[in-house]
Amino acid sequence: MDGVSGHGAGVRSVARIVARDDGRGGTSLPVLESDGPLALRRTRASGPEVRVMLVGAMSGPLGGDHFTVEARVEEGARLSVGSAAATIALPGQAKSEARYDVRLSVADGAELHWLPEQLISAQGSDLYVTTRVDLAATARLVLREEQVLGRVGEEPGRLTSRLTVRIAERAVLDQELACGPGAPGGWDGPAVLAGHRAVGQLVVVRPEFAAEPVTARALGEGATVVPLAGPAALVTAVAPDALRLRRLLDEALTSLA
């Protein structure tokens, strides 16, 4: 497909997924397109859900690269998307910022589980990540984001991450976190990461939360859950490493079941 280039400004790559109710109690994938560093693979699933794995065919994103992943889940369909390995933001020959944009939409009666592996900000990298989710009123969502600041024994690069969630065209979440060299002061202080090097978010949207909102509470050491202004809940967690962060988020998801 079109969308990938290797000129001096960096690589441009786009991956697209469309999931559709197949009319037989399952879900089909009429669109599964990817190029360059982004490769999409359908994997085995049971029941009405279809599963897709995002495989990094090349290293990156590097400085100057721009990756985009788009997924649309149509009415009644069920899609789960994961990744085969962590994504590592690396410095490149181009000194400009790299970008990674995720655009997700979920229709009425549809469900999306967006569960990629961690994003690791390597020393010297500069990455801006945006995730935008648009949900219909009765859509369901489980979305996990995990960022790890630096590989073992190294300082992090600069990482800016913005997450926006809209339900029935109403914004229920719009937050941005900037970490690493050049980020606004205080990002590593007690009010933000408090010296931790792994941070994650879990957004759960279910229509039944409208009648029974989630109660704001701490979820062990390093994690909290709060209700959002809609049928949704947000879990935020910090941890010393990726393994502990994943454990916190998995426990949080179980508690919301």
Automatic annotation (TrEMBL):
One Pfam family in the UniProt entry: UreD
Keyword flag Cytoplasm: yes
Subcellular location: Cytoplasm
Primary location: cytoplasm
Domain of life: Bacteria
Signal peptide, first to last residue: none
GO molecular function, one term: nickel cation binding
UniProt keywords, alphabetically: Chaperone, Cytoplasm, Nickel insertion
GO CC terms: cytoplasm
Family note: Belongs to the UreD family.
Oligomeric form and interacting partners: UreD, UreF and UreG form a complex that acts as a GTP-hydrolysis-dependent molecular chaperone, activating the urease apoprotein by helping to assemble the nickel containing metallocenter of UreC. The UreE protein probably delivers the nickel.
General function of this protein: Required for maturation of urease via the functional incorporation of the urease nickel metallocenter.
Designated name of the protein: Urease accessory protein UreD
Species this protein is from: Streptomyces violarus
Lineage of origin: Bacteria, Bacillati, Actinomycetota, Actinomycetes, Kitasatosporales
Gene: ureD
